[in-house]
Amino acid sequence: MDFVGDIAIVEVPSQLEVCKKTLGEIILRSHRKVRTVLAKAGAIGGARRLRRFELLAGQDGTETVHREHGCIYYLDVAKVYFSPRLSFEHNRVASQVVEGETVIDMFAGIGPFSILIAKKHAEVRVYAIDLNPEAVDYLKRNIIANHVQGKVLPIIGDAKEVVPSRLGKSADRVIMNLPERAVDFLSPACDALKPGGGIIHLYHFESGPNPIETAKKKLAETVERIGYKIENVLLARVVREVSPYRYQVVLDVGIAGHAIQG
Fold first, then answer.
1. pLDDT tens readout for residues 120-172
2. Of 191, 223, 221, 186, whose CA–CA distance to 203 is shortest?
3. Taking a C-beta distance cutoff of 8 angstroms, is the pair 241, 247 a contact?
4. What is the per-residue pLDDT across 32-56, written as a single tens digit (0 to 9) for each?
5. Which domain holds residue 140?
6. Cα→Cα distances 59→42, 75, 250, Å
7. Same domain as 125, residue 55
8. What are the two backbone dihedrals, phi and then psi, of residue 192, each rounded to the nearest 5 degrees?
9. Where residue 19 sits, what CATH number does that domain have?
10. What is the pLDDT of residues 192-218, one digit of tens each?
11. 39 and 88, same structural domain?
């Protein structure tokens, strides 16, 4: 079960389908701060990474206010992507940023990486990109709510087009939280880094008995194919198991500053 603001989101097992409304009422009564209980009614899908929900109990509505690491986020769980399960990652990455850095958040959503980075650091610039216009609307609202105007710069569009046309060779660090397809965006991500190189935080879904090593191999092959070189792997860890034998992993990698000539 996930809690996003005052909304509880549950995945109802098939054997409990007949009593799901009762389950919703029990959750509502058991959690004083919950006003709405929703059931997942499908997988996350589409370019905007959205999911359908079914109301089980409480008020009928999907907009809420979520608080995390001292930040406030306005969002609608049916219109934007947001995962409270990435709370640790939001803080981990934000804590690694160095004063004076330029960061590109390629799939920023409502801003949980971008805004926390700006809250933690006095001198940073974060370009926060997303192709979902409703997510960018909430991102703009959250920038104001968290008083990080001028440090987080929202951009609506496809990162594959935005980065080459506007942000090439500008970043010290790139965040790639699109585990379904992040590997497909490695070329613009590497091109976004400054001539001296930089760091990429890549989130990726991987299956099998050794997901980290498989993800490392896939990343290394892709980076080499697009003409760059990994200098070092700073961190590789399993973030969470998303289904049996399928995992979300994160790789923090240092990329060399110059493309391989060949």
1. 999 999 999 999 999 999 999 999 999 999 999 999 999 999 999 999 999 99
2. 186
3. yes
4. 999 999 999 888 888 888 899 999 9
5. 81-255
6. 21, 16, 36
7. no
8. -75, -20
9. 3.30.300.110
10. 999 999 999 999 999 988 999 999 999
11. no
Task: Name residues whose C-beta falls within 8 Å of residue 75's C-beta, 6 or more positions apart in sequence.
Answer: 4, 5, 63, 64, 65, 66, 82, 110, 138
Q: Are residues 96 and 143 in the same domain?
A: yes
Query: Residue 186 maps to which CATH number?
Result: 3.40.50.150
Residue 261 domain flag: no
Residues 12, 19 contacting (CB under 8 angstroms): no
Total structural domains in the chain? Answer: 2
Print the SS3 string covering the chain.
CEEECCEEEECCCHHHHHHHHHHHHHHHHHCCCCCEEEEECCCCECCCCECCEEEEEECCCCEEEEEECCEEEEEECCCCCCCHHHHHHHHHHHHHCCCCCEEEECCCCCCHHHHHHHHHCCCCEEEEEECCHHHHHHHHHHHHHCCCECCEEEEECCHHHHHHHHHCCCECEEEECCCCCHHHHHHHHHHHECCCCEEEEEEEEEECCCHHHHHHHHHHHHHHHCCCCEEEEEEEEEEEEEECCEEEEEEEEEECCCCCCC
pTM: 0.94
Q: What's the rounded Cα separation, in Å, for the pair 22 and 27? A: 9
